[in-house]
């Protein structure tokens, strides 16, 4: 009866410390790429918080909309004062902004199954708080650059701000993903303990820019490209000096260097190129360009140069390989993981001679690199499909605790179990693979709501007293608020035992049937030890109409009259009553059973 089952589409909330925003379209663009990649198998939303110097009137501003099927909530807040006061108020505003964003996410999207922190600083601390308050697990992707000098023993100390807090965030995470072995080794050497693993960054693929296996060049000019934020760590000055040696001292003609990006050293680098008589002759500065222009320049180049001192990964190097462009890269951390000789050359950091030799080699041999081989290597290592699948495997291992029933009782369900939700109705359990429902339309058994069938679940129409499934076809069954509706509870529980190895049952308890009855409930259910007792339900009205009407304040589809009011006092009473109710004895019957399930019907 069960067809091929879909993967559960986990609800994953990205906490992004860096993310494209109205002040910077490039900040954390790789985080957005990862969110988009993971949205292939999961439902993903993003929460990003940022101070905005331009804000004057508003203290907080929420920007909530859907981008490329991602629900993205950005909360901006304004700066207050200056100095130490600003720092204190910044952190306070940051917390408040997260609370505002969290409430908006819940309103628009509901509760997440998991939080995915992108960069420990800032967002990681909020995830740690939520884990203790809301019991929501989190995983981490850390993008910060490792200290390569410390890792290789060239320096004895490394600086990590707020090291104690970072340790606390990491040890409480379910998994921390770094993007290279160098980063992994660095964090372990620092002394961080946690469940570490390496998953590379996503590289976006635009098929229209993929290079054919045989390139037809329009001229004989050899073009090199470098893409970065132009700062000291990227060591672009040595690239310019290498071109000075090649163009002016070796007198090699027909070569160009195209530099893409802005940064604090741009003017200084332009002056250096000008002093060496290379500016706008052999070396061209393009500044910041949009994505299409960047890919146009990149894919019309013969090779890419990365000359950094430190890189956790280097997206532009991976991007070059994926688009069929061979690379020169320094042994600066990340590139050692993914630059074999088939795709380029690795050189030592701050070694001008090796850089010159590598550029000379590429001038003579870059045409012999087969773009199709590079592209296939890139797809197998950095494509959204690969990164999505690797990350989804982590999610599966992490998300094993699920909330069930009206009481959100936490049950343990292994990632590989096949789960059935019996009588799923308008609110099927998030973890269920298959949902069984007898009534698809409106019915009194669920306050006139219609059945919902999420895309990651298979709907089977059938009777819970005679389920259309094989013996032990399911690893786990959830039967939430259906037992009180059933004609024959003994046969119902027998069917649950037949089709599943274990499961969870929840019904209203005697106290709920006394104060909050429903005309559709045929049984009053309670539990003593491992035995469930079913007793005929004769209650036809609430014990207190006032209690009932306040408990279901502004409710729709209830069996008895409720109050419709915007009174703040009544809403406060309602909030307290609903929150406390699940903790009172005899308000609900809950049982997790394994193999055996005992049932008794009390005759009257």
Tell me what the structure shows.
An eight-stranded mixed β-sheet has the order 3-4-2-1-5-6-7-8, with helices on both faces. It has a six-stranded parallel β-sheet with strand order 11-10-9-12-13-14, sandwiched between helices. It has 604 residues and is an alpha/beta fold. It is elongated. It contains 17 helices and 25 strands. The protein has three domains: 11-198, Glycogen Phosphorylase B (Rossmann fold); 207-386, Rossmann fold (3-Layer(aba) Sandwich); 420-602, Rossmann fold (3-Layer(aba) Sandwich), CATH 3.40.50.
Q: Which key features would you list for this structure?
A:
Rossmann fold; elongated; 25 strands; alpha/beta; 604 residues; six-stranded parallel sheet
Short description:
The chain has 604 residues and is α/β, with parallel strands linked by helices. It contains 17 helices and 25 strands. The strands form five sheets. It has an eight-stranded mixed β-sheet with strand order 3-4-2-1-5-6-7-8, with helices on both faces. A six-stranded parallel β-sheet has the order 11-10-9-12-13-14, sandwiched between helices.
Topology at a glance:
Layout: E1 11-16, H1 29-38, E2 43-51, E3 60-67, E4 70-77, H2 83-109, E5 114-118, H3 120-134, E6 138-142, H4 148-151, H5 163-171, E7 176-178, H6 181-190, E8 196-198, E9 222-227, H7 236-249, E10 255-260, H8 266-275, E11 283-287, H9 291-299, E12 303-306, H10 315-322, E13 327-330, E14 344-347, H11 352-365, H12 371-382, H13 384-398, E15 401-404, E16 409-412, E17 419-422, E18 434-437, E19 458-461, E20 476-480, H14 489-499, E21 502-508, H15 510-515, E22 523-528, E23 531-536, H16 545-551, H17 568-581, E24 588-594, E25 598-602
Parallel strand pairs: 1-2, 1-5, 2-4, 5-6, 6-7, 7-8, 9-10, 9-12, 10-11, 12-13, 13-14, 17-18, 17-20, 18-19, 20-21, 23-25
Antiparallel strand pairs: 3-4, 15-16, 21-24, 22-23
